[in-house]
Amino acid sequence: MGGEGTTLAVIGDVHHELRLLDQVLAHVESTGVQGVLLVGDLGSSDLSWAVRRTPERDARYVDSVREVLAAVQALGVPFAYVPGNHDLPDLDLPGSCDGRVVDVGGLRIGGIGGAGPAKFGFCYEWGEDDIRARPPLDCDVLLCHCPPYGALDRTMRGHSAGSRAILERAQQHRGFLSCGHIHEAPGVEWVDGCLCLNAGGLGKPFGRAQVGYLRRDADGDHAWHVVL
């Protein structure tokens, strides 16, 4: 994805799969990018379910997230992430953009972490009205853990597991949206004028070494291009 403009790598749900992450980061390094985005579910399964939380589990989980972020940081380019539904909602290590806008490679990245509307007892879950109540994000890229309803959200059983509130954000956005959460639904789709990417998961199930790249051209059209 050479040429003028800004290219960012998008990494799906890592789930502390460091071997696969190393393969992905080697590809990212060889490609050359101006930044990296992570869609959440970063840490180990030591936590995941809220009822399993203890100070010891929390500490081990945070250490696993630090390992993931340290590996990404070693690339030497800016990065941003949102926590996933398996992550802690108050995870605020360097690089978090949950609920705010940050700059990565000259692009404004606005984050929406967690997942919903279905709730299964994971640590970071919300309802549709929770997302609707959040202030708008003036950004080029919406970095969401949960996909929009009906786009990149089909489970192995064929059910849509996305969020209508995220869909509403996508319909109002004239830029790019990156999501994850549904490991088996990697792909690229348009939602009205918003180009959306699910980069797929590294973690089980359906996990493999995979990565997406997005580029925004520097010319007057500022066109978006995606490779998965």
General description of the model:
The protein is an alpha/beta fold. The chain has one domain: 4-Layer Sandwich (Purple Acid Phosphatase, chain A, domain 2), CATH 3.60.21. Helix content is 21%, strand content 22%. It contains 4 helices and 11 strands; from the N terminus they run βαβαβββαβαβββββ. It has helices at 18-31, 55-73, 128-132, 164-172, and strands spanning 6-11, 35-38, 79-81, 101-104, 107-112, 141-144, 176-179, 187-191, 194-198, 212-216, 224-227. A 6-stranded mixed sheet has the order 4-5-6-7-9-8. A 5-stranded mixed sheet has the order 3-2-1-10-11, with no helix packed on it. β2, α2 and β3 form a beta-alpha-beta unit. α1 (18-31) packs parallel to α2 (55-73).
Rg on CA atoms, Å:
16 Å
Structural class category: alpha/beta
CATH architecture: 4-Layer Sandwich
Number of strands: 11
Please mark out the parts with pLDDT under 50 across 5 or more consecutive residues, or reply none: none
CATH superfamily: Metallo-dependent phosphatases
What would you say about this model in short?
This protein has 228 residues and is of the alpha/beta class.
Topology:
Blueprint lengths: L5 E6 L6 H14 L3 E4 L16 H19 L5 E3 L19 E4 L2 E6 L15 H5 L8 E4 L19 H9 L3 E4 L7 E5 L2 E5 L13 E5 L7 E4 L1
Parallel strand pairs: 1-2, 2-3, 5-6, 6-7, 7-9
Antiparallel strand pairs: 1-10, 4-5, 8-9, 10-11
Pick out its properties.
228 residues, five-stranded mixed sheet, 4 helices, 11 strands
